[in-house]
Write a structure and sequence with these properties.
Length: 269
């Protein structure tokens, strides 16, 4: 497990979370699943001509939810464990949000790519959520009556923490040096961190971190792919004195990597 901080926003990398049979289940699913919709990082990306990723349409996502591969089921189990250990309610963002340019942002999305240009990487720069600006939906307060304000500091005491959780799945011949990972940007919109695309790598990051799909570096004539399964989450505290962000930081320091990796599997029992 590794942790990074960009502009006071946290990012966690966890490798080795999944068992071999779960790895095989996700590889098999990723190879056979259909991705019939175009997906863009932002409305600006559409206007600038970004080459879209292939994504699931609504029907394909319902199939994904109805019969999730074993690896994704363990991600759900992890969410359940985090809910208990962090004293939060874990939900996704609303099913699908649209902006004025009719760019749609699903709460759960799977993006499949075979290539991406440097220009697409720049045009696709976006945030998954930004509670620092006015949210287009309401979040109920769980420890008293009413709703959280439309604007708040992400993950602060008593306020929700908006995060994204991503799992990579790759073709058997895909290598990390081929790119197509995720780049994260600092406050000056410069690349602060590149996360390599590694099969079954789990990444958790704050939703208001600017990020984009890394440009590809696949050898000419080589045909391969990678998929990112992304969940845009709300961790809503059940107590007024709870900061979900701080609670996760303390949790990750309290448990060993082996214990963290066993969270989802232990919950299955």
């Amino acid at each position: 497990m590794k942790k990074a901080t960009i502009a006071e926003k946290d990012l966690y990398l966890i490798d080795g979370f999944f068992q071999q049979k779960e790895k095989e289940s996700l590889t098999s699913y990723s190879t056979q699943a259909s991705f019939s919709r175009n997906s863009y990082g932002s409305s600006e990306a559409i206007q600038n001509g970004e080459k879209p990723a292939s994504s699931m349409n609504g029907k394909e996502r319902w199939i994904f939810f109805h019969r999730p591969p074993a690896a994704i089921q363990e991600v759900y189990n992890l969410f359940s464990q985090l809910s208990e250990k962090l004293h939060v309610d874990v939900t996704t963002l609303p099913w699908e949000l649209c902006d004025a340019a009719l760019a749609r942002s699903p709460a759960v999305i799977a993006n499949k790519l075979e290539a991406a240009s440097e220009e697409s990487m720049e045009w696709g720069k976006h945030q998954d959520s930004n509670p620092g600006k006015r949210l287009p939906f309401g979040i109920p307060i769980l420890y008293s009556e009413g709703m959280h304000p439309e604007q708040f500091l992400n993950g602060s005491e008593g306020r929700p923490w908006m995060v994204s959780v991503m799992v990579y799945s790759t073709a058997a011949d895909f290598l990390p040096e081929y790119g197509l990972g995720t780049v994260f940007y600092d406050e000056s919109q410069q690349i602060a961190l590149r996360v390599n695309c590694q099969d079954l790598r789990l990444v958790l990051f704050e939703g208001d971190l600017f990020h984009s799909i890394e440009a590809s570096n696949i050898p000419h004539g080589k045909k391969t792919w990678r998929i990112s399964y992304v969940f845009k989450m709300i961790l809503n505290p059940k107590r007024a004195d709870c900061s979900p962000k701080q609670a996760l930081f303390e949790l990750m320091h309290h448990y060993s990597l082996e214990e963290i990796n066993s969270f989802g599997h232990d919950f299955r029992a």
